[in-house]
Design brief:
The protein has 236 residues and is of the alpha/beta class. It contains 8 helices and 12 strands.
């Protein structure tokens, strides 16, 4: 697929570009075309050096507003403060058959720890998730939330083995299935449906919780894996 990553020169966007370029044509976006082209060149070289002849995709760079045109999936990795407004300004470049993936986590730091913090939109705090506000900005284009609990460091360590779950929320089943397929294209990631887009608030809130667990318990970049109960069937 042709995939555009808004804010693709950041840690999260760059990590997703590296992992997804094994199979897909990736365009990373930036507010500066020079920065986008420089970053994409470095990412492309890193991906080709690791994947060698197995690489079927590519990584190129463009302005954020140009990233959305002609791409099947648009991945939003911009900071929460810019994510909604950026998509709203380029809404007329989107088409209804596209899918927007929100990786946005609105949070703030208070002392040593982090809390989920609603995105400020329309001059006031909202109780809705960032994904829901993005959906409002780009409707009728479908929005699906995913990747919030995958540390960018894991993705950028291109040779590192992954064994993580990705919680996927969305209102359109077709869009959700498309994003779940994209998740599966990264070896070691398992997509799990967690219901409608409104549940994105709770998924987004997991990131500050994981960061707090790292700070308070001396953990290094923790993530999540959903483990089903396996009862002991042996008689006692």
């Amino acid at each position: 697929m042709k995939i555009g990553i808004l804010g693709g020169t950041g840690n999260m966007g760059g990590g997703l570009a590296l992992r997804l370029s094994l199979k897909h044509e990736i365009t990373v976006g930036s507010r500066s075309v020079d920065k986008a082209e420089e970053a994409s060149g470095e990412l492309e070289a890193k991906a080709q050096g690791f994947y060698q002849s197995a690489m079927r995709g590519s990584i190129t760079g463009a302005l954020n507003e140009d990233v959305v045109e002609g791409r099947e999936i648009i991945i939003e990795t911009l900071p929460a403060s810019a994510a909604v407004t950026t998509l709203a300004t380029i809404r007329d470049r989107l088409t209804p058959d596209q899918v927007v993936v929100s990786c946005v986590v609105p949070m703030k730091r208070q002392g040593r720890l982090y809390t989920w913090s609603p995105v400020v939109a329309g001059g006031r705090d909202q109780s809705r998730s960032a994904a829901e506000l993005i959906q409002e900005a780009v409707a009728p284009v479908n929005v699906v939330s995913a990747f919030q609990t995958v540390p960018a460091q894991y993705l950028n360590d291109i040779g590192g083995m992954l064994d993580l779950d990705v919680l996927v929320a969305g209102d359109d089943l077709g869009a959700v299935e498309k994003v779940m397929g994209l998740v599966r294209d990264i070896p070691g990631l398992r997509p799990l449906k967690v219901g409608p887009l409104a549940n994105s608030k709770w998924v987004e809130a997991l990131t500050p919780l994981l960061l707090n667990a790292a700070i308070l318990n001396g953990l290094h970049d923790p993530s999540i894996r959903i483990v089903p109960w396996s009862p002991d069937t042996e008689e006692t």
